[in-house]
Fold:
Amino acid sequence: MIDTELYQAKTLYPFQESTVHKILDEFSKSGKDFNLLFQLPTGGGKTVIFSEIAKKYIEDSKEKVLILTHRIELSVQTSKQLSAIGVNNKVINSEVKEIENPDDYQCFIAMVETLNNRLNDDENFIENIGLVIVDEAHYNSFRKIFQFYQNANILGVTATPLSSNKALPLNDNYNKLIVGESISSLIESGYLADADSYTYDVNLHGLKIGSNGDFTVNSSDVVYGNYFMQEKLLFAYEEVAIGDKTLIFNSGIDTSIRVEETFKKRGYKIRHLDSTFSDKDRKDVLSWFKETPDAILTSVGILTTGFDEPTVNTIILNRATRSLTLYHQMIGRGSRKLPKKDRFKLIDLGNNVRRFGLWQDYINWQDAFAFPDRFLESRLSESDDIEFEVEFEFPRGAEDVINVEALDSFNIKEVYYDCIDNGLKGKEAVEKSLENHFNVIRDAATDYFHGLEIMAILQDHIEHRLKHYTKCITKSTPNYYKYIIETYNRQLQQKLRAVLDDE
Structure:
């Protein structure tokens, strides 16, 4: 049972009360076959809001509520708030194999993987659910649970209504988005601290994009682990944040460990934390960080959600990301307001502010929800692609199947400008690219169908290369990009069939 004896229920602010009524009214009006997504910035009090929604829903409908989270800390935090406002609840963790006396509970909080295992063993493991609330709804792991609760309403809650997998947009599962208060509005109303941003130009050449669309950990460790980047980080800290309680976000563990070593040599109080730490070691580090006024914590991934330390005065992004969601999650760790803290500092060492805009800037989340592909394309701009000259990273083991060097040596931008300089049409570059892909596949394939399998492996590389081509030409549109990929794939298949069909 969760210890709530010392937990004080958080009182809702006026805007939070208004949000609760708006969401419940929407469900009441729209009926059972309706799912709703709610956006509110980090620090806006999502847990307080959806806990109150759960309480009122239970009172009004006499049905039970299921709350899904992806971290045990979020489950415990939610359980404490629910208990404090008088909602009997049960946390379903890995130790809970069956629920004794289920009628004693009005609400259940579950880790998504744990619940999925229980439901696959027994689809009636938790019954009589009228509303499913999904915290951090942008993660796609929650989708697997929805099939078990098709007769319930679903409320997804997130600071950034963009799916973690662009192939699975949130508007597939949610009928409508309700946008809460903006970051700037919460700052003006005194609910969030404002950010002073300090940007430093960094050379990100060498970063590679992985299959998830973000820069890979390995390439980030190479770029950020070198001596010059470590020195730039130290310089930025000493110029802007010396003496502040500081949280540093890194992409890879190797980089974070080097940051710890670099700062320790200079005599600063710093500790490293990553997902490999035991629960005890993690608690020890976080306790030290909380109790040490000028502490520096260098971390990897683990503190982007479910972590709340209001005394953080400086956030350092010692990494680059192409994820707007991650960008907001990291900065949001510094936005908690205190009586003597109405501002915090952001040090950007990844050109992230240039890529996404200031954290406080207005974002049209309705556009992001309705047209996620267009929204992301517009933010990851042409200048971003050209400036960083991002290299493509092939899937692991690709070099055992194909001649990766032959593909890497072909630079479609250079070929395009060579064609223009020699009086040829720019489209010649696409034909030369097609020939390059064809030659590599032909040399590796044993027959036509094997060639198609290799072509499928190279599909991300084909799209990456053609995207660089469309950046070279003027008046390129998303429809043209789609057209050129379809044409390219069709012609490549025809060339392969012509030479491999008889083999």
Q: What stands out?
A: Residues 1-5 have pLDDT under 50 and may be disordered. The longest strand covers residues 129-135. Residues 48 and 162 are 22 Å apart (CA to CA).
